[in-house]
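Whiteboard transcription, Tuesday session. T.W. wrote the structure tokens on the left side:
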């Protein structure tokens, strides 16, 4: 009987970071220029003036204080306000695969593994930079891994869905060692000119090595159970895709970037996720009081506080529910994995934890783990 465990995780963090002060200064310069250029239309009432952003607004709305990005200067340029990542030759490794490989190498090194020990690669993330060939197969090739690989997309829940998929492969005997890679260049699908969302996302890549227990190093994490849930909603949406090239021209293409109805998302996702967690705990006969730590999706500090409180029955401490949101921002599928990667080594043998993601779809996933000696 094969038993899947998490042997190690890996992390790639870009060198550049944007603080809220820098972001607000840039955004407000754009607002001032827009209002100046459209003064006549604004005075006539045919165009609404744009409003300034502020550090206070951002931190109150999200808890985010900074975010790492791959292309800082163009994002902060009011004339550009998006990353500029030059298109690479087909003979060169893609940027998404490159950061995925970096995270994968970190995970392999932590587990004492070589690429030839791995049977499969899953690239699970929110936004793939191309349709095909699969980024996972490119990562597989760059690392020198035999076997197979494929891409999957479940938005911010991609990592937990990927972990369950990898665990199922191992249980079925189709693989004994699987890399789940989460490269997230979220700066590319963010509308940096939208006051309500210009502060949300950052760039990063994470990796999770899921293996059969017989192969795992000491200090691995037993996967006690996983649960997945999806429920259709238009409240988080991005309509960018290859069919946009054949669609009629429209004057408003804002829906080709990240869009959300934030209040609706907050109201609907919090109870859905809390219920999913409690349901899995009940299925595993685990009392919430036995949870040593929760590594929640890093989307919004307020959402995490409410979810943790509903599960634990009290306001969670920073130790019970650590955050990386303040320094990394929302990194989509990678967020809960970063929290786990940076805040798990102090747990003792036998202690229980929960990795949880949630996001567009709606989608949500939970992975219950126990620290092994």
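and on the right, the sequence the group agreed on:
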């Amino acid at each position: 009987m094969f038993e899947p465990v998490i042997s190690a995780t890996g992390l790639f963090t870009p060198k550049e970071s944007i603080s809220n002060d820098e972001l607000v200064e840039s955004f407000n310069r754009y607002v001032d220029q827009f209002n100046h250029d459209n003064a006549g239309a604004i005075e006539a009432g045919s165009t609404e003036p744009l409003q300034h952003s502020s550090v206070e607004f951002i931190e109150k709305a999200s808890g985010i204080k900074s975010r790492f990005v791959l292309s800082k200067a163009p994002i902060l340029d009011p004339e550009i306000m998006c990353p500029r990542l030059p298109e690479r030759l087909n003979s060169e490794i893609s940027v998404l695969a490159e950061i995925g490989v970096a995270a994968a190498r970190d995970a392999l090194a932590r587990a004492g593994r070589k690429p030839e020990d791995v049977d499969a690669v899953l690239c699970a993330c929110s936004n793939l930079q191309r349709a095909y060939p699969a980024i996972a197969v490119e990562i597989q090739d760059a690392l020198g891994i035999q076997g197979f690989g494929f891409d999957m997309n479940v938005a911010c829940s991609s990592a937990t869905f990927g972990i369950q998929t990898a665990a199922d492969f191992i249980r079925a005997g189709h693989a004994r060692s699987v890399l789940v890679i989460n490269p997230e260049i979220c700066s590319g699908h963010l509308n940096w000119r939208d006051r309500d969302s210009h502060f949300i996302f950052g760039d990063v890549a994470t990796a999770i090595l899921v293996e059969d227990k017989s192969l795992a190093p000491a200090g691995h994490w037993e996967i006690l159970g996983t649960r997945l849930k999806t429920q259709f909603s238009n409240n988080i949406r991005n309509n960018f895709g290859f069919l946009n090239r054949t669609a009629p021209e429209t004057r408003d293409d804002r829906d080709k970037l990240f869009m959300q109805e934030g209040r609706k998302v907050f109201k609907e996702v919090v109870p859905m996720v809390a219920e999913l967690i409690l349901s899995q705990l009940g299925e595993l006969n685990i009392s919430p009081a036995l949870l040593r730590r929760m590594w929640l999706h890093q989307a919004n500090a307020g959402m995490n506080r409410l979810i943790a409180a509903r599960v634990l029955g009290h306001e969670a401490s920073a130790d019970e529910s650590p955050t990386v949101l303040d320094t990394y921002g929302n990194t989509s599928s990678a967020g809960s994995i970063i929290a786990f990667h940076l805040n798990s080594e102090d747990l003792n043998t036998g202690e229980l934890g929960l990795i949880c993601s949630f996001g567009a779809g709606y989608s949500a996933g939970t992975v219950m783990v126990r620290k092994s000696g």
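Someone added at the bottom: The chain has a mean pLDDT of 95.
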